[in-house]
Amino acid sequence: YEQQKYSKVIMIVGSDRVREFDAFLNKYNDVKSKHGYYNFESIDVISAGERDPDAEGASGMSASKMRAAVQEGNYDLFKMGVPAGVSEKNCHILYNAVAKGMNINIKEGMEYTTEDMEEINSLIGEIDILCKEDRAIPILREDQICEFLFLKEAVSEGISEEDILEKAKSKSRGLTPAQRRKMAIRMRIQAKKPGFIKKRLRALKRAATKAVIARRSRKAAIKMVVKKFFPKLRTKKKSELSMS
Fold this sequence. Notes:
Layout: E1 8-13, H1 18-27, E2 42-47, H2 63-72, H3 75-79, H4 88-101, H5 114-132, H6 142-155, H7 161-171, H8 177-190, H9 194-206, H10 210-229
C-alpha cells in the first residue's frame, strides 16, 4: 500500500480460515492502528480448497503446522508442506528463512547459507571439469566417483534415491548394489549438513592433484609391464622381490 502499486488484495487460504481472515483484514482496512495503516479498494479472501486440519501427513499440512515443525526443529515434517517440485537445497533455505523470521536458532551445522551454496556449487563445478578431462588414468577411484554423484544430486535437484543409484551404477562397476545403496542413504542423510558436504567435496578435489595422478600412472604402468613381460611376478609378493 505504501508504494502505491496495488489497489486490490486477494488472499488465498485454507477453506477453514476464509471467514476468519476475511473479517480480520476488512476490519482494519482504512483504519489507523498500532500495526500500521492500509486502505485498499477491496480485500477478497478465497478458499484454496477443502482441508482437514486434523488429518495426518501432507493432506492436513498448513502454515501453522509448518511453523510448529520449525519450532520443534522437525525438518522432515516441515518438508511435507513444501511442493514436491522444490529441491532439497531450496527447501532448506525456506526452512532457515522461516526459522529466522520466528527468531529460532537452528542447530549448528544444519543451516545452508548463500556462502555455503556458492562454495558447494563451485566445488561441484571444478570436480565436474576435472572428471570430464580426457585422461589415461581417472582422477577419482570408482568409489569416489560414486560418492561425488550422490553428493551432487543430494544438494541440487532432490532426485529420488532410485535415480541416484541408477546413475552411480552406470558410472561405477566396482561397488556392489548393497554398497551403493548404503552410500546413497548415508549421503541423503548427510546432505542436510552443509559442513559435511563441503568437507567431502574438498577431499575429493584434493584427490585429483598432479602428484596423485602421477603416482597412479606410475603404478598402472608398472602393472602393465609386469603383466605383459613378467607374468610370473604377478603371483609373488613385493616383499619377496629384489630391489632390481
